[in-house]
Amino acid sequence: MGTEEAVPVVRSGPLVGAQEFEWWKLRHGIGTNVVSHVVPEAGTTRRMARRLLHEAVDPFESLRTSFGLDEEGRPRQHVHPVREFEVLERDAGEVTAEELIAELTHTEFTVEGRTLTRVGMVVDGPYVRCVVLSVSHAVIDGRGAQVLRQRLNSVFAGRGTKLTTAEAAPHPVDSALSEHSGPLSRMRSASLRFWEKEIERMPNRLFAPARGGVIERYHSEYESFAAHPALVLTGRRFQTSPAVVYTSTIVALAALISGSPTTTVRTHFAGRTPEENNTVGCYHQILPLTIDTSDRPSLGRIIERVRSQSFRVQRRYRVSHLTYREMRARAERARGASFAEGITVNFDYEVPLNQLTSQDSVLAAELESAGERELLMGAGESGADLTGLDAYLMFRLRSETLHGFGTFNSLSMSTEQMRGLLAGPEQLLRRLLSEGDVAWEAMRAMFGERVCGTGRADLGRRGVDVFSFGESVAALERHPDVAGAVLRVTEDAGHSVLVAHVETRTSRLTPEELRAHMLRQLSPAHPVVCPDRFVITVVATAGPVPHRT
């Protein structure tokens, strides 16, 4: 799965930032592409377009990078020399720029490929109408795409200054080497210590699907003209960013819906030092924010806690995906519970500066006069659930409008709860701005029992961990020597303890064997936990023990 030997390598290094996660997705055929395009000035020929394209992208090592594996099977990135692009040309009389963009967006890269960059052009005779650049997400993130697009536009407009590879540094390989053995290594060590402790606080999941291993996707689109002033005004009041404010409302709603004493949502962090801010590469991290909600805090208190925790996580983002997964796997075996993906928030904030500098009175007037929001929801396809997804919420704030896109597992929450996560943030912020704060009970009253219910009767809680009695018993009874089982949650020295009362028709069954069996049943997609204790009772039998499947 490495780079072809025929392609020379300038230098190599480990992966950095989000590269390991995106590499893993690419390896499993679920990678995504980041596409940029530029419209050249009239009269730009193919040769001129190629020259300008090379001038724009050649300084960035990530755009001539491929992946391979080292002797221990860990991924590495290989930087190749500058070479001519293979250009996919489409005639302007047959294909529009939008159609070429769509084609390259959906043309997948492979982890074995010797390039993770593709170029397409819409041509009209000797001239070029549009240049499209498709790059695997494994080597570029949102910030990197902004830098690349600015460079493309300036070069093709004749405003670009000469830029060498050395001047474009640091590159992702530089960052990776610094992180593993250079100046950033101390930051990485501190990050590892931080995440070892954070994983201990995290609940295994906030919700449990009615049927494990299956996802029934519910898709949504949301648009609001009031969200911009509400987010900015609240951010100013609490001296934080609109992204933190929005994430805080999702934390509050997730806590209200789930009833969990500790609430975790995953969100995106830039993952860059100031020196890396203008690097074209993939640095962003999707990391969990874990917030204590056991004291039923007000919305204002939740915003303060999310703000503080966001600062802590942002300082400790130097942890690779594979290392984090290894730490989490150790915790799963120790706790006897697998972590589900849960709720992920992706907030992209690009409001013009003149909007950010508006006076509070102007923003308040915009909030008051904003038109009605739009909410569209509909059932999507069903499929196998491998990660334990509850919701993925993508929100983009553009000019004066918030555009939201959501994917839910409708087996984990009701339609009313999905609507609450989509439209609830704006409702909460309007209430906070008008009243100063919103108490926990007031938030519950706003959304009612249909959203903030007490949960399903078949679910149990062991400390912060949630599990299904039925699925956990079924997992126990899949052991060939188990004839029947009952689970009970008890209290011992202030801690929740899950006890399994197991019936067997053989005296050879041991607690150690049952624990090993249950650990093999753990999965993010199934709300199964391993009991803390096993009470084994041998029962009389007149025949062989039935094999439970």
UniProtKB/TrEMBL annotation:
Which InterPro entries does the record associate with it?
AMP-bd_C_sf, CAT-like_dom_sf, Condensation_dom
Annotated ranges, domain Condensation: 53-358
Top-rank lineage group of the source organism: Bacteria
Q: What is the name of this protein?
A: Condensation domain-containing protein
Species per Swiss-Prot/TrEMBL record: Streptomyces chisholmiae
